[in-house]
Amino acid sequence: MLPENTEIKNYRPNAGIVLFREDGKVLLCERVENYSKRWQFPQGGIDKGETPFQAAVRELREETSVTSAKFVAALPKVLRYDFPDAVKNAHPERHNDGQEQYWHLFLFTGEDSEINLQTAEPEFRSYAWVDIEKAPDKVVEFKREIYQIVAQEFGLIIRQYLKQA
After folding, report:
1. Phi, psi of 106, rounded to the nearest 5 degrees
2. Which pTM was predicted?
3. What is the C-alpha separation between 124 and 131, in angstroms, rounded?
4. Where are the alpha helices (DSSP H) in 23-102?
C-alpha cells in the first residue's frame, strides 16, 4: 500500500541510443527546437508490441538514417526523468510526467556520409562526435543526471571495447 501523499507518475517508455566510433567519440545531435542546451543522443518512444532494442534500432534509423551499427551493450536498469512543467505544458497531448529510458550502446560501422538528419520528420539540425564525458554538459538540465549515468556506464564499456579491438 502506498503512503497517502504518494503521487503515481506516468512515464513514457523510451529507447535511448549511444552510437560510438572506433576512436571512442559518441554521436551527439542538436535538436531543431530553438532553446539552449538542445543537444542529445538519439532517442524515441517505444511503440506498442516493440521491444526496447527494436525501438532503439528503429529510432536510430528514423532520426539519423544510420543502419551500419553493431550492438554492444544495454544498461541493465531503466532510468527515469521527470519533465519540467514547461515541457509538459508544451505537449499536453502526451499525458506523461516524464520518460523511462532503456539505453543501448552501438558501434558505428559505417561512414559519416551515411548520417542524414534530413529525414521524413527531422528532429535534429546537426551532429557532432564528442567525448562521452562531455555529453552531460550539453543537454538540458532535466536530462543531465541521466546523461551522467549513461556517460559513466557506457564510457567504461567503450574504453574496454576499444582496448580489445
Report:
1. -130, 145
2. 0.92
3. 19
4. 52-64, 85-90
Q: Environment class of residue 90 by beta-carbon count within 10 Å: exposed (0-12), middle (13-18) or buried (19+)?
A: exposed
pLDDT, tens digit (0-9, with 9 covering 90-100), for 103-123: 999 999 999 999 999 999 999
pLDDT digits (tens, 9 = 90+) for 43-92: 999 999 999 999 999 999 999 999 999 999 999 999 999 999 888 888 77
Residue with cell 528514423: 62
What the block records as the C-alpha cell of 4 is 497517502
The yes-or-no verdict on residue 95 having pLDDT over 90 is no
Neighbours of 48 (CB within 10 A): 6
Of 38, 4, 59, the residue nearest 124 (C-alpha): 38
Query: Which pairs from 51-60 meet CB under 8 Å and 24+ separation?
Result: 52/13, 52/15, 52/102, 52/104, 53/15, 53/104, 55/13, 55/14, 55/15, 55/102, 56/15, 56/16, 56/17, 56/102, 56/104, 56/106, 59/15, 59/17, 60/17, 60/19, 60/106
Q: Which fold has domain 11-164?
A: Nucleoside Triphosphate Pyrophosphohydrolase (3.90.79)
